[in-house]
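Lab notes, practical 5.
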Amino acid sequence: MKRIFTVLLLVLIAFNAFATGEKEGQGVEFIMNNGTEPASLDPSNISGVPEHHIYMAIFEGLVIYDPKTSLAAPGVAESWTVSPDSTQITFKLRKEAVWSDGTPITAKTVVDSWLRTLAPETAAEYAYMITMTVKGAEAYNEGKGPASGVAIRALDDRTFQVDLVGPMPYAVDMMAHYAFAILPMHVIAKYGNNWIKPGNMVSNGAFVLESWKPQESLTVVKNPKYWDTANVRLNKITFLPIEDRLTAYNKFKAGEIDWADGIPLELVDEIKLRPDYQVSPQVGTYYYIFNMTRKPFDNPKVRKALTMALNMQDLVSKITKGGQLPTRSMVPAMAGYTPAQGVAYNPEEAKKLLAEAGYPGGKNFPKVTILYNTLDAHKKIAEWVQESWKQVLGITSISLTNQEWGTFLDTRQNLHDFDISRAGWIGDYLDPNTFLDMFMSTSGLNDGLYNNPEFDRLVRQAASMPAGKARMDTLRKAEEQLMTVDQHVITFYHYVNQDMIDLTKWDGWYPNPLGSHEWKFIGPKK
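Output from the prediction step:
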């Protein structure tokens, strides 16, 4: 009888493991639609949300994002202290932190990694986040100073110290971003640009790269060398590059995907009724960039006329319909900060300004193209813009073109080969600065080649100021230059997180302001 009972118990355990998706020796697999093929896996060369999702699985910086608040939580650094004047941070690294090949991660590793990101020959697009934060970093990045002038140092193997350009209240939170990634310098030295290929790649996150089949899937598996691997609950994550959100949604409904980032617009009314639809406010902005070097966008009257002709309330009510917040600001409202405003919807004033710019009734307006990355939602918005400008301003020379993600990023960021381009920005940390410093003339992400010395001066001034009203007022003055004076961008709405995931099945996934979900916390409901 005892033997029969034991057999039955084993059968029940096996069935329970099968029902929860766990198999002995294999653990849990999680499948996510990541929206597109990643442009790169090298943290120094990435700049998009799809790449960020993968980065958070296979890499870990000094700090990571808290899964609920998006504020800094311990990562490779187990603790940190800030000097009384808030201009110096000292991080204490974990002695257990090693690369997936067993090589220790030391404070010198952090120093060398940041210097690689800053190096002029590397030209990392996000290097500006370090140059705006760390003393001496800008001079080195611009080839005007030595690497030894960058104020970062290894006090010993486990103590990393950085001097800031000012008392930056958001500095530690910012360092969860991949601009501050810790890199396997010993592997990069061996393989060069091929270090990110399967078989070569070494990483330090909760997962390691197993396979990368372009346009098909990218798979990571649990990293046994990760310092906190005992608490990592997933054994495998598969990222799918499905750009068509309807296809992804159907796969989600069929149980073939566990998390779909984004939804098909045409089914938003149906999806809103589903209990596995997760929607929450997000610190992010959807906008269009003008290429300031191309006519007629060198004329602020044109930029303002085109902006005034768009009714953003109609857009979110009739097209996107997901609870997005129409806006005339680049920066979302934050504690202690009142955003500056661009021009409001005003068809008559838009017609007047366009006429003053030399294009009455849209006559002789040059042929220009709106560039967007392949996604049905971007297409619908671009078509709405095209039709609005035709109906309100009489402009009939607007064409649309789409490109897949990698090509789109190259065209917009590296070549600056566009007239008007779609863009979106999710905050890298919870401070207005993250929405402004990318428009500085020296920023690698200044895709529209905006150049306003007063804007640059104000952003730099704010970087050296302590937290408080005066600093926020300075940032607001900078945003006024960008939006009220220059109208460099057309802001459409502030995002909401729109995700499909069954939270009765999974936990450790929480709505949060930045939409950043650290994989180490996600696992099946117990």
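Observations recorded by the TA: The longest helix spans residues 2-19. The radius of gyration is 24 Å.
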